[in-house]
Amino acid sequence: MIHALNPHLVGFLRGLDERFPDDSTVMTMAEWVMSNTHLRQRPFSFKGFEFQRQILNDMHPDLSCMKLSQIGLTEIQIRKFFAFLKRNPGTSGIFSMPDLAMRDKLSQTRIKVLIENEAVFNGPLIAKPVRKKEIYQVDESFGYITGTTEGEATSLVADVLMEDEVDLADQGMRALFQSRLQGSVHKLNQKFSTPSYRGYGIDASFTASDQHEWQIKCVCGHRQIPHFHPRFLYLPGLPKSVEDADGLARLTTEQVEHLDLESAYVRCESCDRPLDLAEGDREWVPKYPSRRSRGYRVRPFSIATITIPYIFKQLATYQRADNVKGWWNTVIGEPYNDSNARISEEDLNHCMTPMPIDMKSYTGYGDLFLGCDVGQTCHVVIGRRDRLLEFKQVPQNEIVDFIRKRVEDYGIVQGGIDMYPYTPTAEAIRDATHGIIMPMAYATTPKAPVVTEKRDEFETVTNYVINRTAAIDLVAKQCRNRTWQIAGYDPFKTLVKTHFRDMIRIESPDTAPVWNKMNGDDHFLHAAALQQTAVRIRAGVEYSSDQRSAVFMMGGVRLQSDPKASIYRGAEHAGVLGSGR
After folding, report:
1. Where are the alpha helices (DSSP H) in 219-377?
2. Whole-angstrom Cα distance, residue 137 to residue 129?
3. What is the full DSSP assignment across 419-472?
4. 421's torsion region: left (phi>0), alpha (psi -120 to 50) or beta?
5. How does residue 455 score in pLDDT terms, banded at 50, 70 and 90?
6. What confidence score (pLDDT) does residue 518 get?
7. Most distant CA pair in the chain: distance in Å?
């Protein structure tokens, strides 16, 4: 109490804290954080959130944590991240968020406050440490706060990579970030996220882990993992027809009003006694202890503050917003199984037919289109608007001649080949087919432009820029509605299924929907997307020519008098292209 009245002593003690923070080789990470950091001006504590302690202590090099929202785990990540940098001088780390907007918000509202206000991160070794929203220096260590973008990933090296909300991030960029750990002796990669879809992102990595669950022991001796399911809920008024969590989620507002929520409690599945979620006998227990990767799953009843009335109140809110998926993900912490998010195997089986295809019977009618996904091995799809008729794998060094010959032999009228990263190959195919097969570059903008260049007195289309989500939506819609036939795939039946099901459509309230890769085995899907886009482009070009302001040159569009009007009308008609760059 004396030092509280003596400002000189207060300054002296603060200086000691800066020079000699509480630390030792036997001190756990949780003990270090409690001894050296504060939350709301009080020493950091796990009171009410005891499940966090082991997660904070765990320095496993491959850790995944599937969680619900607003339970303090981002705060835990931040403190673990900077504690590691402080306790390991001369190291560097990456703390990644899905995008730069989320990075800026986290950096300015939480990280900046922590680093500037804690004496332990402001020692005397560095007079003016680097402190910006994208980088924080702690003694001789550096913490990089990033979005999951290619530019940042390729320029950094790290000893530790903390990934927050990984399901919202570009999965391909995540792999690039993980490669930044290759030169480190630590190589720590820890991932935290609310789930999105089953089998994707954090759900996939947790499923492959040792799967720690926060168990509780009832006074009757039974150990269990309480979760949102009727067998763990004492809920007077619940209809007997509700047998599982899906049934609970389908309860209407009127049905919820008949529940006695004030009397509800989480019960033991064995003896029906109330479980003491706050002070009960709890521990983390792995389901598969021999697995090499570490996983933790945090459920609503991992803490006592998420009550049954609160869960149903949130359910009603999300139901009104037509966003039950959001409730499953953020309130319950469960992945969602949505047929609209991923092409289902059932829909594919319905569309696929083993009938043999004689391509000669389809030539000469002017309705064949081609799509090509380029790589070391190129994947080609040829078909009509409502029917895919041929699937081929072609080595890259043979693809120009292969496509040229297919165009000549089949009378293909329009096609698309991805423009990147093999732009010279795409341009060579455009020229070899006289513009029938056009380079197409993916974009994420809602409206994507046509790219032209001046040749003599005309504007000539050199490539198209297409909306990536809209292009893949074309394929998904055909499969889901079962409105087309997939044939000619032998011997690639299994591969076609794998490629068509390797992407998931991620929808977030604040951003445009995007298709994300799962494993990167998606080449025939992209070829089909380009093929279906070519169908729309052809319809748009024909519509433009009806306006008598466009003529054909190299199969593209050569515009006279008004070089923009007709192609933009055709682009709008195509439904995939837009106007303006």
Report:
1. 245-249, 253-257, 308-320, 324-326, 345-351
2. 5
3. -SS-HHHHHHHHHHTTTSEEEEEEE-SSS-PEEEEEETTEEEEEEEEEEHHHHH
4. alpha
5. low
6. 83
7. 97
User: How far, rounded to the nearest angstrom, does the alpha carbon of residue 368 sit from its chain's CA centroid?
Assistant: 35
Q: Burial, 41: exposed, middle or buried (Cβ in 10 Å; 0-12, 13-18, 19+)?
A: exposed
- Tell me the two tokens of residue 31: 């003990």
Count of other CB atoms within 10 angstroms of residue 570: 25
Continuous segment of H or E residues that includes residue 379? strand 377-383
Residue 248: CB atoms within 10 Å: 20
SS3 144: strand
Indicate if the pLDDT at residue 76 is higher than 50: yes
User: Can you give the pTM of this predicted structure?
Assistant: 0.75
Start-end of H helices in 171-320: 171-178, 201-207, 245-249, 253-257, 308-320
Token pair, residue 452, equals 């032209």
Mean pLDDT over the full length of the chain: 86
pLDDT, tens digit (0-9, with 9 covering 90-100), for 414-438? 999 999 889 999 999 999 999 999 9
pLDDT of residue 389: 93
Round the CA-based radius of gyration of the chain to a whole number and report it.
29
217-244: b or e for each residue (b if 16 or more CB lie within 10 Å)?
Answer: bbeeeeebbbbbebebbbbeebeeebee
- φ, ψ at 50 (rounded to 5°): -60, -25
